[in-house]
Amino acid sequence: MAEPVRVRRLTDQEGQKLQQIVRRGSTSSVRYRRAMMLLASAGGNRVPVIAKLVQADEDTVRDVIHRFNEIGLGCLDPGWAGGRPRLLSTDDEDFVVQTATTRPTKLGQPFTRWSIRKLAAYLRKVHGRVIRIGREALRCLLARRGVTFQRTKTWKESPDPERDAKLDRIEEVLARFPDRVFAFDEFEPLGIRPTAGSCWAQQGRPERHPATYHRTHGVRYLHGCYSVGDDTLWGVNRRKKGAANTLAALKSIRTARPDGAPIYVILDNLSAHKGEQIRCWAKKNRVELCFTPTYASWANPIEAHFGPLRQFTVANSRHRNHTIQTRALHAYLRWRNTNARHPDLLAAQRKERVRIRSEKGIRRGGRHIAAAA
Known about the structure:
Layout: H1 12-24, H2 29-42, H3 47-54, H4 58-71, H5 90-100, H6 116-125, H7 135-144, H8 163-176, E1 181-190, E2 220-227, E3 232-238, H9 243-256, E4 263-267, H10 276-284, E5 287-291, H11 303-314, H12 322-339, H13 343-372
Parallel strand pairs: 1-4, 4-5
Antiparallel strand pairs: 1-2, 2-3
Helix pairs in contact: 1-2, 1-11, 2-3, 2-4, 2-11, 3-4, 11-12
């Protein structure tokens, strides 16, 4: 049997970048959908589930995953293009891009960044290679090769000494016990304010929301739970994060598998997730807590499913209070769970679970009868 198509293990930078794109949703629709495919695959979701999530063909999802495994985050920009042949050779273009992405001080220039004018002038007189290119052609070349003028940013890697061990354990339980794996995380701080978003409207007449508001309602946190095997998402709004609320969510997850078999919950390293009371309860109820490494919450399968929840319930909204906001969130969750998979597939899964439980009951009853004899 062929191995399921899946992205390779993400680096910390790749995971954080994909998580940022999915959370903000402010990039192009192509980058957003492709980032969601990769993040969902990294979280252990199979290709059919991802295809339903992003409303794409399964072959498209597989192509994006294979492309990522080959070239990394460059697959987010397909680079579709056409037109007459370029005047510069591929080697010349590579040299221009390499020069533009090198700090000028390393090339003996007395400034910390290039401008289009300075870069074009430098390329005309660089020793051993003269490239004559106009400023507009240079700007188009850099844009075509994915080099844009942007602010510098900081980055961080996971300092967790058990990073690889934790990721290995998460991958193992997702591969071996998908029907008994759950994910848990808190969604946003949810405030009451007009939130920008996108919608269909007449050209030049966008839907408008007030820009002035008062933050008098406080915030809430959706304690979200996700069943990997059932592709089911649910949650409860709370006033704050805390060990008591985390324990209540874990109990609801344990209730979803009442057969007493061990289950596995993937969650991040927030202190409210690993108190002594929570650890004792988990050990007593056969719940293994699989923590993601520090700064690697992208490994949590629930992260990919928070993106659509944000886009379709929080963005482009004007909820008057937290009660209305909570109703909207729960209405979307009900719709999402109903439409997550084909009804025939869900019915077949339910029948299979009933059959397995009935067989277990017969076996237990047989052992009791034998013991009595």
